[in-house]
Structures are given as structure tokens and as C-alpha cells.
Amino acid sequence: MSNRLPILYTFRRCPYAMRARMAINIAGISVEQIEVSLKNKPQGLLNCSPKATVPVVVLPDGDVIEQSRDIMVWALQKSDPGNWLFSEDRLKYQQMMQLVDKCDLEFKPLLDRYKYFDRHPEFSQEDYRHRAEIFLKELETTLAKQGFLTGEHIRFADVAIFPFIRQFAAVDGEWFKHSSYKNVHRWLNVCINTEVFQKIMEKHGG
Questions:
Q1: Which of 69, 127, 135, 180 gives the lowest tally of CB atoms within 10 Å of its CB?
Q2: Claim to verify: residue 48 and residue 136 sit in the same structural domain
Q3: 205 three-state secondary structure
Q4: 94/120 same-domain check
Q5: What is the distance between the alpha carbons of residues 72 and 23, in angstroms, rounded to a whole number?
Q6: What are the DSSP E strand ranges found in 29-151?
């Protein structure tokens, strides 16, 4: 049993799965990666995680990790060559997690409404974008002072957040290209062009 690999259920284009795959990759952890068809989810995924949303990691002992951030922390606690978790600085770690909370709990719901505004007719697409821009403005202010969200090196917060900014940018590419968020634009391009992101976005099964 001990030589079995953890199983990673993933979906290539899901931002949550992207950040989990990046952490697993940078930690050098080998996994059995299963690409999930969202229209025909495998029974193995349904059995271990009734919510059936990716990513999910099933460990060889049967333990299940169902949240992308928990998967990231699990991987990086095994190996964190870039000190993405600020292991020696608890305050930095907490501040970083608060920023990721803001992305996940405040920005992501607005991103979904901006992208699928026709499903949320209470407000216009432009209004949803304006609301989401509050978070972009915060990132822009930070990135005007430093290369990445928590300093001069890519770390947990960058990897946890940029897949969602990438998704936001793709909703109206021309608008984003000509927007005033020049530092966010620069940072996003750097993150997208990292070797680890290019690697985890390669077609893999399914």
C-alpha cells in the first residue's frame, strides 16, 4: 500500500485546480492525475468527495483533501523549496492568507457574476466588473511597490490568486489590455509564463 501514489482529481482549466497542481509540482510530489470530465464525473471522485468539485486529492491511506488551498499547504509542507509559505514568519503567513481569503470570498463571486452576467440580471456586466475592480486596485497598489504580492519572489499568494485574475482578464481581453492596471498586467504575464505554470497546463490524459 505504501508505494501507491496520491490520486489528484483535476480539471485543466479550473483555477482552483491550477493552483493545486502548481503547488504539487513545485513540491516535487508524484501523483496519479485524473482529468475529470465535468459532464461525466468518475465514480471514484463521487465516492471520495460527494461535492464532486475539483481539485481533490486522495491519499494512499484513504484520507481526502477537498479544498485547493488545503492541497497547496499539504504539498508545500512536504517540500517548499521557494519558501512559499513563509515558514519562519507567522505574521507574513497570516497576512498572505488574508489576501487569499479576499480573493476567494470576495473577488471570486464577483468574477463569476462578471463572467456569467446573463445568469445574474440584478446588475449589468459593467457593474459587476466595477465591483471586482476593488480587488484589482488593491493588487495594483501592492504591485506598484514590489514584483509580487508578498515581496520580490513568487509565493503562495501569487499562485493562489493569479489563476482567477487570468480568468478575469479573459472575460474582456481588450478592456483588460487597455485598462490602467499596468502592474497587475505585468505580474500576471510573469506568473503565466513561469515554467511551472506552463508545465501544469500541458494536456494530461482525458
A1: 180
A2: no
A3: coil
A4: yes
A5: 5
A6: 32-35, 56-58, 64-65
Q: Amino acid letter at 178?
A: H
Quick one: cell of 75? 504539498
Residue 38 phi/psi, 5-degree rounding, is -65, -20
Asked if residue 128 lies in contact with residue 114, where contact means CB atoms within 8 angstroms, the answer is yes
Q: Return the closest-CA partner of residue 168 out of 105, 106, 107.
A: 107
How far apart are alpha carbons 55 and 52 in whole angstroms?
Answer: 9
pLDDT per position as a tens digit, 94-153: 999 999 999 999 999 999 999 999 999 999 999 999 999 999 999 999 999 999 999 999
User: Any idea how long the chain is?
Assistant: 206
Secondary structure class of 202 (helix, strand, coil): coil
Q: Are residues 8 and 31 in contact, defined by beta-carbon separation less than 8 angstroms?
A: yes
3-state secondary structure 141-189: HHHCCCCECCECCCCHHHHHHHHHHHHHHHHCHHHHHCCCCHHHHHHHH
Q: What angle do CA 16, 21, 23 make, to 5 degrees?
A: 100
What is the domain extent for residue 160? 90-192
> What is the pTM for the complete model shown?
0.94
